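Q: what does this look like with pterin cytosine dinucleotide bound?
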Amino acid sequence: MSILGTRVLRTEDPGFLTTGAIYTEDVQDERLDGAVHIHFVRSTVAHARISAIDTSAALAADGVIAVFTAKDLADDGIAPVKPMAPNMNQAMTQPLLADGTVRFVGEPVAAVVTEQQYQGEDAIELVDIDYEFLPAVVDLNDAKDGGKGLLFPAAGTNVVVKYGDDTALDKDLFEGCDVVVSKTIINQRVAPAPMESRAAAAVVGADGRLTAWIPNQGAQGTKSSVVGVLGLDRDKVRIITPDVGGAFGAKFGVDPEQAVVCWIAKRLGRPARWTESRNENLLAMTHGRAQEQTVTIGGSRDGTIQAYRIEILQDCGAYPKAGAFLPSLTILMAPGPYNIPRAEAVSTSVVTNTTPIGAYRGAGRPEATAAIDRAVDMFAVEAGVDPAEVRRKNLLPKFTEPRVTAFGAVYDSGDYVMALEKALTAADYPKLREEQARRREAGDTLQLGIGLSSYVEITGPGGEAGGPNENSTVEVHPDGTATILTGTSPHGQGHSTVWAMLASEELGIPIDKITVKWGDTDLVPKGGGTGGSRSLQLGGAAVRQASRELLVEARERAAASLEASGADLEFDVQTSAFNVKGDPDVSVPLSSLAKDERLFVHTVFTAPGPTFPFGTHVAVVEVDMETGKVFLRRVVTVDDAGTVINPLLAEGQRHGGIAQGAAQAFLEEFVYDEEGNPLTATFADYPFLSATEVPSFELVESETPTSYNPLGAKGIGEAGTIGATPAVQNAVIDAVAHLGVRHIDMPTSSQRVWRAINEAKGA
Ligand code: MCN
């Protein structure tokens, strides 16, 4: 029986649950002995010129070795970091330490280096910074029109980049539509809040080579960033990835603080360490989402959608990072799974005096789904057609051959109506509507809301020449064990388990004898890391390919060993040995073929393109009409990620993703006041979801294999987050729709819902 498709327990868990993981802060390595400790002095104002920095008191404090500022970096030839793409305004550069101007609360201004960790906590208080205040640009429309000033005067604008031509919108797009609805909605800013905050440890050896331990999603990408930012030789840098306590898209590359830690290790010739506090993490790790979306949707009274437009205003925060680019993904996925004859999408990315925006689980695609699925619901209400019926009518019909959308996405395969019907059946949709009608009729305090989201997303997007790809090395050892090297970089996704399953299936070696390694650039020089839910369809496929190629080499060795022709041999996975066909007693174990010469294969798997997982989520909420409080009662989901290799892991990804997506809908928001002061910089103010606030999610099985990789697998890591947010938001609005409420922005807090109820009642 195949091990693939079975619920193999995570091999990672015993270690995590007993001896504990080794996060960057825990790394014990003799090269780090005697390390200095770094603390950052951070801006307490959103926008100001720095007129003076006095470090003398700090320098005189106990244990302080040095205090570094932008000037020290400049003297050493370290230039500010340019925006990630050439089409972005190149004047908007980010210094590693604020250089003359601070642009957000939490921006690092100075680095204090001490012998002991606790000494730095005290010493940072002694660095005296004089600020000349500048107006803070917080509102996105202020940022766009430049009315409140520019963050980068040399740029001449606050606009980083535009996608699509917003001066050439089709004025006839909605011509002939009986029903047209338009609304500006907010996809609010959220904090990734991983359990492990950011950290770094670095040392420069006697050979002048930098070794840095940094929690990341791909050591190879982090190495490129360190090399680029600090202007080092590639072969003089080694990045090691310890265990990573969650990343959610926000641990790609290198952050300014981590680059400074590497620079200080080099500058002082002493190992250096840094771990941020939770408060610093909430202030200065990139945030996610942060779009203002104006959606317009039109169609006929029978519920047929004819046209859709989305105009996006993307908040990039103070410096253009991945956030500036995210709207291009939102545009790519704008029409989602719907068959919309006329669609248009444009975006403008602007800088504001807030924490920079980066990738966050789904990165650009949840924003697309939230917009279209909110628009579909608003259209359904206006047309007077049930939202499930509108989806049924407008979803693209099943297709098995790649299909190009109006925005140039090539959807590999999809059966969206099937996903919708399965989800509706599992939720017993008609019964839910009956119950809703009953409660409305009775005027119950707890009203029922039912929300839907039908989504399609993109995983394994790549960007590599020749197509998305990933590499793998598989080696069989003489003692019967095997090692896999992979360019992916798990941080909660369970690759050790699944990569071992994939090799075991081919080689007949038990999974507990297979070790998976990643995240050390000396060991695995190339790799795309883990993001965009790319790992299984590319990295997993590479493991299978390497295992199969290894058997080709092994067969030749077996043939020589058994003095038979390779064609006369068969590989018996049960015994992990080659037999002569028809004579099973004449055999040679795979492991013994590695005795005289190493038996390994390095391979690269390349896919024809990304894949497009899809599904439908049904959310059921109760809303207390007196207090506005929302209770999430059920989330029923179909998340079709092609062939599932380990259902336990795929379901785990769905559960976590749904919780995160639901949390955005009804709970989470990172808030600033008008002066750019963060109001939610501790866990007392920033509410993230815990298991006590959610029901057990109801996961419906569905597998539509893709032809883009031999596993038939698409990505599952972000799907839950993508579908859950609009389903839950739609459910909350649906609960109060009978009062005339048409929209409530996320998060649908008690206060917002209560206000919407009372405004609708005319109170
Ligand atoms: N899987 C499967 N069958 C499929 C698809 C996936 O069995 N058809 C399994 C895979 O073998 C893997 C897991 O599910 O063990 C997720 O695989 P995949 O969809 O390829 O996603 P990645 O491994 O590339 O994970 C990335 C994705 C992203 S982009 C974010 S953000 C995210 C997420 O994963 N961040 C996470 N899940 C997270 N989970 C944890 N615990 N922590 C994070 O920071």
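The chain is about 30% helix and 25% strand. The pocket of pterin cytosine dinucleotide is lined by residues 246-249, 361, 491-495, 498, 530-536, 540, 641-646, 649-650, 653, 656, 713-718 (CB under 6 Å).
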